Amino acid sequence: MDALRVQLSSGSLTSSVAASSLLSQPRTPFSSLQLGRVGSSPAVGSVSANETCTADELHYVPVPNSDWRAALWRYLPSPKAPKRKHPLLLLSGIASNAFTYDLSPECSFARSMSGSGFDTWILELRGAGLSSLNVDTGTGKESRKDEQQIVSGLLENVINVSERMEKVLDEGFKFLGLQDRLSKRVGDFKQRLEVFPRYNWDFDNYLEEDIPSAMEYVRTQTKPEDGKLLAIGHSMGGMLLYAMLSRCGLKGMDSGLASVTTIASTLEYSSSGTLLKYLLPMKEPAQALNVSALPIDTMLEMAHPLICRPPYALSWLTTNISAPQMMEPEVIEKLVLNSLCPVPAKLLYQLATSVDKGGLRDRTGSFYYKDHISTTNVPILALAGDWDIVCPPDAVYETVKLIPEHLATYKVFGSPGGPHYGHQDMISGRTARSEIYPLIIQFLQRHDQS
């Protein structure tokens, strides 16, 4: 592992540290670190989100009513670009970390925004990426042990299935070293199981605790004159922004946002052909197993050889991420290996309401976020991809049509002859930089000046 140069805000020092050591630092209010990589960059797909930070600065902010610290990746504005009035906050989707906005120099959404002059911050919600937790190993030891056994058993079953598949496909399609890799990933995962019982939050916790704390921290650091931020959310990140506008509009409160851009997001999927109608019911086995989180990151890491390598037995999974030929294979590989995180069961249960009639509800089940989005006074740009099977254009429009017409701008990207856009393509696709980034930057500029 390359060494990391760690510069504290109150001084500097140079030290070789593993990023895992960053996760155990004492929690202090509004702490910040600036990281710069020493030595050559590792090959694409060879590092995990817990081993590197590609931003200019890494900051931490305590999450209220929890032992978590959310991580904020900061990309400083280019001195060559026009000076902007408002900082820009980026929110990722479910089970995602900051890498979704910075997968490579060629398709770095975050770098493009900072290159256009925006002080750009990516929020890693609790449990994602470099967010950190104070672990008290003395409480709930038996319940953690039971959960470790359940989840470890699930992962070991994956190995058994892969062994049977290897025998079936042995003729010309030997998965060289697959079992060793899978066994190692299970071993690594077991070391992380200690914190899984702490994955006990839902969508409303993000909305009420993580995001307000992050917004206040960014305001403190950047000091915009009107106290407002620009915000962009992808997938669940956009759902969080919609939900915030819905709550604030109903209560007549200032959201603190100058504009909102949502990418592949909606508050209701019930009338669309979304793939989520088949995936979100995973909450039922999670409830039956009584586990606090689903290790989606580990499962996809173990499935990676079947997704990205011959004979491509699970290559169809990439269509959930990207339209054919839209993302470079090595970028998809990095996305699978480095940008995913475990998903709390409570979060999954609440998000599952978005596929029901009426859409996403709060944890009580009585408040429908969609019902109050019309009360917002914030300009919104809503983008959809023509080949997005996770959040299709008709699902995106289900929310857009409820926003006051003078505040909403709706755009579907993709054309009959191509290029086409899947769920991640509007951020990381080959043509996103030329087709989509300029439209977003133009929208941000318009509302940064107002």
Question: Please, could you describe this protein's structure?
Answer:
This protein has helices at 19-22, 109-115, 141-168, 178-192, 203-222, 236-251, 276-279, 283-289, 296-308, 329-338, 345-351, 393-400, 425-428, 432-435, 437-449, and strands at 4-8, 32-37, 57-62, 68-75, 88-91, 120-124, 132-133, 229-234, 257-263, 293-294, 343-344, 380-385, 408-413. The strands form two sheets. Strands 1, 2, 3, 4, 5, 6, 7, 8, 9, 12 and 13 form an eleven-stranded mixed β-sheet that branches. It has a two-stranded antiparallel ribbon with strand order 10-11. The chain is built from 15 helices and 13 strands. 46% of the residues are buried. Helix 3 packs antiparallel against helix 4, helix 4 (178-192) packs antiparallel against helix 9 (296-308) and helix 9 (296-308) runs antiparallel to helix 10 (329-338). It folds into two domains: 4-134 and 203-274 and 358-449, Alpha/Beta hydrolase fold, catalytic domain (Rossmann fold), CATH 3.40.50; 141-200 and 277-347, no CATH class.
